[in-house]
Design a protein that fits this description.
With 267 residues, the chain is mostly helical. Helix content is 51%, strand content 9%. It is built from 10 helices and 7 strands. The strands form 3 sheets. It has a 3-stranded mixed β-sheet. The protein has a two-stranded antiparallel ribbon with strand order 2-7. Helix 2 packs across helix 4.
Length: 267
């Protein structure tokens, strides 16, 4: 593989995902060190990310493992930078000095193997460069706050740890945390209601998938109920085929208060 193609291969595998940023935020807060450099090294070690000294580009050596390792290291470095600046922006981490330290983005490569000649050089991945404060500290409030996951939506979603969480429910929960952090409690409640409704809808769809076809639940009826559940203009009460008497009994059981009973009672 020639150097230019290898460089392009590395770039094609560099990825900064929401999940990696959330993991980096969690690591920063749980394994905090005043030195940003030490925290970055700890993060890379924690996720078994090891940047090779050289990427060997010789026909006798498979370069793909080293290429992927370089891409992984660059991805995690960028995730770390985004996570740290995100925590600084949220006033959870405070910079202690004005100077910034750049993250290392160069990578050496060589065509030299034992018993052969060649040449050695390095790529400069300036497009993935970033700088972070050299020395930081935790915000004083974090020293006594046990519910730090409510201070950031990424941390909250990671704390939930629900792999199959629907993207729209996840976004509603993220919005709820952001509203809560900014003391917008009524919008926070609205977002929690939206997430709750979405959860009931997903439950209804799961129940439909788990039920076998029968006289009262043919394939056509099943699809009609699913369509209603997914229709934003149809209430869950109607979509689930709820018996209003059951809903009324639940409402009375709750003391007649305005409790949002959205559970779909099929039947």
């Amino acid at each position: 593989m020639d150097p230019q193609k290898a460089r392009e291969e590395i770039s094609s595998h560099v990825l900064v995902s929401r999940q990696s940023v959330a993991l980096a935020k969690s690591f920063i807060l749980s394994s905090f060190d005043r030195s940003s450099e030490k925290m970055l090294h700890g993060l890379l070690s924690n996720y078994d990310v090891h940047k090779p000294e050289y990427v060997v580009l010789h026909k006798s050596v498979d370069p793909l493992p080293a290429i992927r390792a370089v891409a992984s290291a660059l991805s995690w470095q960028l995730s770390f930078a985004k996570a740290l600046w995100g925590l600084i922006g949220a006033a959870l981490i405070l910079p202690m000095q004005s100077n910034l330290v750049p993250l290392e983005t160069s990578q050496a490569w060589t065509t030299v193997v034992p018993g052969s000649g060649g040449h050695t050089a390095a790529w400069q991945f300036k497009e993935y460069s970033a700088a972070v404060p050299a020395v930081v500290r935790k915000a004083p409030s974090l020293s006594v706050d046990a519910c730090r996951f409510l201070s950031n939506s990424d941390l909250y979603i990671k704390e939930l740890d629900i792999p199959s969480l629907h993207s729209e429910i996840e976004q509603a929960l993220r919005d709820a945390v952001d509203c809560f952090r900014n003391e917008l409690y009524l919008p926070c409640l609205a977002m929690l209601g939206l997430a709750s409704e979405g959860a009931w809808i997903e439950l209804g769809k799961a129940l439909l998938d788990s039920c076998t076809d029968g006289p009262g639940l043919t394939a056509k009826v099943r699809q009609a109920k699913r369509d209603k559940l997914e229709d934003p203009y149809v209430s869950i009460l109607e979509a689930g085929g709820c018996r209003r008497t059951v809903f009324t009994q639940g409402h009375l059981w709750c003391g007649g208060k305005g409790v949002g009973l959205h559970a779909p009672f099929f039947g």
